[in-house]
């Protein structure tokens, strides 16, 4: 995270409350590092066995600001983060129409949120749902915390390294964010140190907000570019900017609108159901365009064997009755995405033979433009190097046979044994040591998982040629909050609260996350104490009490 251009802490103007929190946080980190170094208390942690803890630099408030800046930078598209120019129409052959979606790059992480007014909820108070997507790694990038301040509690998700709640609530108001791409020309250098400091100041003020209007007033002054803030209290849903940013609807937006319209009254359980939805609008939109001419077309026999037509017919029948649910135990999602991937390769490989990522990673927005012939985009289906002019119908048919050949070679000829989860597997790697090896494999988590990059429960695809649907990123924090005792607030992260692999809290939340079982959290500290298995007290060091003793942990 270190950056040579980072200014010294003294050059930044930070509110006293924020400065005090950052300094106290740094003092706590450093006190523990001293104890680890003096008594070897942390030697069981694998990264400290590999890298001597004495080589770890002391934590400073500037490090927390760097974490905040890195987080804000991760919300920008990949091309903007790396400082490289976006691919432009200059590399598109002159006989091909420009399709902007072809070169779009995803941000490293994304913030999503939506709110329901109280007149549409069972408890009569608004509901705020929040989702953060990003790397799925161990330890988790998000940490659930109940922070008790002199001004009152704040609960929700924090980032390790930042002593404030990013998405969460106090006793009176809940807040969350949406992120959207900012054009490179509007933010060419990314977030500045001053913006990172302002972001933390905004979070600190949120913890003391009296109502949703108060919180949004803070956001109006301090919200970073490329973000929208949503806040609720017992009566109000507020947002800043007051008008939502104008942007094209995504496949996820379309599905969310369908789910919102389907229910007249929402409960927190209903909101959780929306967040965990795995029906893909991509499949429901593209499959009719792909298969419309195939129901009565014979196979081109790219699959060896006399039963090629029967297999093809069986799978087309399966897709015809499929609702687009990316269920990990079903074969239809595997067939659909393998087919889509093969189609994109057929369409783009001749134009971009060296840009492998363009034709190996499915891009539904581009394919929708081509298959619907938007502004003449169907010409992309023609192979430039061949004499005949290929149509999209021909490319779709051949791509289906390509996909079936790949699946038969991999799993045999019985589709009832194929499952989406066999290819669409979560690979949550232990991340403190970046190199892949036996230790990393032992401490990582793998599991079949539902969803796709465009479902409400988001799971991104990887880049490995042999494992194209491997999942290493996706929804890594979800929350449903209401300022109501009857409705409650619920949160979930994919791993555990501990970064130590030998702790029972290292991965204890993983089964709940897979099954969509959220944790209830309350701002009432007595409820937490009542359900606690123990209490650990960290006492600030003083001249009379220079070190923590064993007796101070119960």
UniProtKB/TrEMBL annotation:
<protein>
    <submittedName>
        <fullName>Penicillin amidase</fullName>
    </submittedName>
</protein>
<dbReference type="GO" id="GO:0017000">
    <property type="term" value="P:antibiotic biosynthetic process"/>
</dbReference>
<dbReference type="InterPro" id="IPR043147">
    <property type="entry name" value="Penicillin_amidase_A-knob"/>
</dbReference>
<dbReference type="InterPro" id="IPR002692">
    <property type="entry name" value="S45"/>
</dbReference>
<dbReference type="Pfam" id="PF01804">
    <property type="entry name" value="Penicil_amidase"/>
</dbReference>
<dbReference type="GO" id="GO:0016787">
    <property type="term" value="F:hydrolase activity"/>
</dbReference>
<dbReference type="InterPro" id="IPR029055">
    <property type="entry name" value="Ntn_hydrolases_N"/>
</dbReference>
